[in-house]
Amino acid sequence: MRLLTTVAALRCYLNKLRSDSQLTVSEELVADEMSSWDRTAVGLVPTMGGLHQGHLNLIKRARQENSTVIVSIFVNPLQFGPNEDYARYPRTLEQDQKLCENAGVDAIFAPTPEVMGVGAKNIQDSLITQVIPPSAMILGLCGRSRLGHFQGVATIVTKLLNLVQPDRAYFGQKDGQQLAIIKRLVADLNLPVEIVACPTVREASGLAFSSRNQYLSAAEKEQAAVLYRGLKKAEAAFKSGVRHSSQLIAVVQQEVARVSTVLLEYIELVEPTTLMSLETIEEEGMLAIAARLGSTRLIDNIILRDRQPIIAIDGPAGAGKSTVARQVAAELGLVYLDTGAMYRAITWLVIQKGIALDDECAIAELAHTCKIELTPSQDLKSPVRVWIDDVDVTQEIRTVEVTSKVSAIAAQTAVRQALVNQQQNWGKKGGLVAEGRDIGSHVFPDAEVKIFLTASVSERARRRQQDFKKQGQPEVSLEQLERDIAERDWKDSTRKVSPLQKAADAVELQTDGMNISEVAAQIINYYHQKLSQW
Questions:
Q1: Which residues sit opposite 3 in a β-bridge?
Q2: I need a labelling partner for 487 at 20 to 30 A (CA). Which of 215, 258, 349, 476 fits?
Q3: Which residues line the annotated binding site?
Q4: Active site includes 55?
Q5: Where is this protein chiefly located (predicted)?
């Protein structure tokens, strides 16, 4: 692991990393159908040090999804007010280095304020060019008492994204206002990075992990846990049908009032993306809280969603995901979101328009301008009818030509971005069953039910051989099929785009020796168990 403290060293490291990676990618991989696979995917985890389990969770996720993981450690003076805790903020670089090394981090970027060009000044006194998010997003919640805070955050985050130029950057949901602002910043400035939100990690008491928890005694940590208890009681009220902000806020206030040492700064209900105040939750809301315990300021939040559950089924090729997902959706009366058909529809349109598979610019434009629709069908073999630009392509997308080219199209970043956006928009109402490689970990990270469906390589090879026989295709030996499946697993798990991975909170279902109905029955049983807990 490298410790980098200057911009020059960071740039040298990144240039060498990308240069060496391009040289070591074999010709076989370059020519492979997964043409977007490479060894240059970089994940950035921006921190201010004082690392804890919440940070380690971000690093773990980045490690799963990227070839290189860089952690920045920078106590940013621009986001502290004149009377805040900049001078005493935890600085534990030596300990942080050990934690990063054990977590598999490749490099730490730990610059001084002078290296970052800001000096030890707050935002009001700094002469640096500032990045100022929309006023509506920074004047409420924490911005009301921390003037200039989010300008300081946005300015330094923008600098870090420009310096590292990562494929993905990782932030925790605990800082819900910061997360929304950074997502908006990236979208508004067209920065080529994916912002990955990770769930809040909590101590056994429910207290959200924070570097500032180091200020608290053991007794104070127990007292501070009342914040989360209040939020959970509001969540219970929400699940029982309470939708109005004043009632939800009153539930939290009543619980927090039990601990007299905790002084509330605010409890507010806002829309999680825009941070606009909500009177009533129609689809989803973020109930956010800030309070002080002695001289320590604490924040937390919880997302409240009014939607039908989503079932996300991930797993390797040949595990039977599509067939199982269709059956589960049919038996539960949910919508089967055929994500594979969406990629096939794009592929069909690319072929129809005579666009070369390697013309990624033309394909990107097509993916972002075409209109895909999925409608339920009574045909059990094709339970979803697929339309693209008002043309029914349900049967056309199953041809050999489309099948042979869909992987190359699906591996292109722009195609994936366009379709994931559509899928997430459909998911806002819930009531879906979706399957793929990273449906539960990325497309629907907040899915209520997550399944990782798998089977041994030998079992999947046997199933594929049986499918070939039923389809009248030439016989392929089990040994060859096993080699093909093992190679596909490796490619799928190391792809830069949409890598195969099991979500941390997914239930793994090993299906060797089980038929489709048995697998579906287990998922449905688990779904009902989860439903009873809500």
A1: 108
A2: 349
A3: 48-55, 79, 172-175, 178, 201, 209-212
A4: yes
A5: cytoplasm
